[in-house]
Write a structure and sequence with these properties.
609 residues, alpha+beta, 5 domains, 5-stranded mixed beta sheet
């Protein structure tokens, strides 16, 4: 009976519904984001223009140059944000928060606008920063004391008066370290007045400055030695009142005797590196500066009717295309699934296949279904054949036993020893078939247990040969053994005797009188190879692949007594596989057959002294 699927639960309907929902949501979200974020994105991009925010960078660089850390910068950041209307955020170089004018949790702009590092300034615009790479406000140990400042101010005032006597108006400017510097009119020639007014005291380092200069000289010396610069005399660093010397941070000058251009450049790099190391404890660590728009909640746009029509039209077009494509895909997907459903619901005995029309997942599923159907059909045929073979194998000895027992019961014959021997033999045949079936059932169920122990291959062959010696002599067949003393197995001796016994019994049945059956064992690297070779009629090439199949016999007309039950060789294969080995058969018609067992070699046990 064909089961009807409700419309709302059909795969096609669900695919169409989901696709339509996704299309509507995606179009609506895209339109909303495009309208509400375009202006915000433009403003954010404009916020990356460093030229428009130099004042923020300059003030934060000054803060870093005059403070050993960023502990109190939040107030400065808040004041700058209020004055400029910008969002200002400072983070460490690994994006750890330092200060932010926006509420906590507000995302940062996509990239920083600049780095704030007073020891490596390359965007700051005040005089001297571009030359030295150190913010001139980073003075550290060079800051003069109050007493030194009073003395320097008096010397500066005295020199200013001297310049005025030569008609030159100057202005006293205090540099960040607290030292006063005279600044004259731009373009005026002050060289003559400078010579006359020089007192040798104003530009002489104070004790505080001299100590810092001496420390700097000591820090520079290892770098100079590593750079291979030989000054020829002790290093002499002094104050540069112009604030433009490139050697030491804006107000240091180094004086040497006749250094070449390359040596001078290397010396400058050493002094600059030592200067940064000297100032590092006095300045805040490097930070990343993020600048953004001040309003974090921009007003929404009101779209015009024309824009609304465009959005609605685009959404409708996308929705229509999505639904159409989904419908085509869904129909192609559902059609083979329906075929699979109908084939699966067909009666099992029909073994219905489905056509494979695609090479996608559905086509792969159809191929798997057809393979499963084929295996089921093959297994069903094997099952029927097995049941028939088992019934036939059991019927023959049972029929013989029943017939003779009825004859004895009716008094037709007397139960003499020959008759009892015949009945006993039939019972043994029946028992052997049942034992073989039980072994195969244990193998199939995975319940077969092996009791392994060290076993000499030669002893195993001798035991099997001794058990079949009487049968071989009765058949006129010579039974020989060839064994390598180094061949040892780690195997179940009972099961291995059963394996070789089946092979020897099979060889004796197919070997004519005056033939030979040879058992051999040899060591082959990590394996032991056991062979049973006969000089019988051999196996036809078309029959060779089936010799290990259950209930298979090359001669269908042969009697059960001479032909066997067809279970011996399958048991050989399974028992050998349980030991981790393989079983193979080779034969040439008319020249006999060779059955080869390859098993993992075992260790020879140590002999007790």
């Amino acid at each position: 009976m064909k089961r009807r699927i409700p419309l709302r639960k059909r795969l096609l309907v669900r695919l169409l519904s989901v696709s339509a929902l996704i299309a509507v949501c995606s179009v609506a979200a895209t339109a909303w984001l495009a309208v509400t974020t375009t202006t915000s994105a433009l403003k954010e991009e404009q916020g990356q223009d460093l030229a428009a925010d130099n004042s923020i960078l300059a003030q934060l660089s000054g803060y870093a140059a005059t403070h050993p850390d960023w502990a109190g910068v939040q107030r400065t950041v808040r004041d700058l944000a209020a004055r400029t209307g910008r969002r200002i955020a400072l983070t460490t170089v690994d994006r750890g928060p330092i200060a932010d004018s926006a509420p906590r949790g507000t995302p940062l702009p996509p990239r920083p606008a600049a780095s704030v590092d007073p020891l490596r300034t390359d965007t700051y615009t005040e005089s001297g920063a571009q030359l030295s790479g150190i913010d001139p406000r980073a003075v550290g140990p060079y800051r003069v004391t109050a007493q030194e400042r009073v003395k320097l101010d008096a010397l500066a005032a005295k020199r200013k008066q001297c310049y005025e006597r030569f008609g030159i108006e100057t202005t006293v400017v205090r540099i960040p370290s607290g030292r006063p510097v005279l600044s004259g009119p731009e373009g005026a020639d002050t060289s003559y007045a400078a010579e006359q007014c020089a007192d040798g005291q104003l530009n002489t380092p104070t004790p505080t400055e001299q100590k810092a200069l001496d420390d700097l000289s000591q820090m520079t010396r290892p770098c100079l030695e590593h750079a291979g610069v030989d000054l020829g005399r002790p290093m002499f660093l002094t104050i540069d009142p112009t604030g433009k010397d490139p050697f030491g941070g804006g107000y240091l000058v180094a004086k040497y005797a006749k250094l070449g251009k390359d040596a001078t450049a290397r010396t400058a790099r050493c002094v600059l590196g030592a200067r940064r190391t000297q100032l590092e404890p006095y300045v805040a660590p490097a930070a990343e500066l993020f600048l953004g728009i001040g309003d974090q909640n921009p007003s929404r746009f009101n779209m015009s009717p024309a824009n609304k029509a465009k959005v609605v039209g685009t959404a409708g077009l996308v929705l229509a295309v999505t639904v159409a494509v989904t419908a085509v895909v869904a129909i192609r997907l559902v059609r083979p699934l329906r075929a699979l459903t109908e084939a699966a619901g067909a009666p099992p005995e029909l073994h219905v296949r489905v056509p494979v029309t695609t090479r996608d997942e559905t086509g792969i599923l159809a191929e798997a279904f057809n393979d499963l159907t084929e295996r089921r059909e093959r297994l069903e045929a094997q099952r029927k054949a097995m049941v028939s073979d088992i019934a036939h194998e059991l019927r023959s000895p049972l029929t013989n036993i029943r017939g003779w027992l009825e004859v004895v019961r009716d008094g037709v014959v007397d139960p003499d020893p020959a008759l009892l021997d015949s009945l006993h033999e039939e019972a043994l045949v029946l028992q052997r078939i049942i034992d073989d079936l039980q072994d195969l059932a244990a193998v199939d169920a995975g319940t077969l247990r092996l009791h392994r122990e060290p076993l000499r291959a030669g002893d195993l062959l001798e035991q099997v040969a001794a058990a079949h010696r009487v049968a071989a002599d009765a058949a006129g067949v010579a039974l020989g053994i060839t064994a390598d003393p180094a061949a040892w197995l780690d195997a179940d001796p009972v099961r291995m005797r059963q394996v070789l016994g089946n092979l020897v019994s099979n060889a004796l049945r197919h070997t004519p009188a005056e033939g030979t059956v040879t058992l051999a064992a040899r060591r082959d690297r990590d394996d032991v190879v056991l062979t049973v070779t006969d000089t019988g009629s051999g196996i036809a090439p078309e029959d060779l692949p089936h010799v290990f199949d259950r209930f298979w016999r090359a001669e269908k007309s042969r009697s059960r007594r001479t032909g066997g039950s067809g279970l011996g060789l399958p048991i050989v294969r399974h028992l050998v596989a349980a030991h981790g080995g393989t079983a193979e058969a080779a034969s040439e018609p008319g020249e006999g057959a060779v059955f080869t067992l390859r098993l993992p070699a075992g260790r020879q046990p140590r002999e007790e002294p």
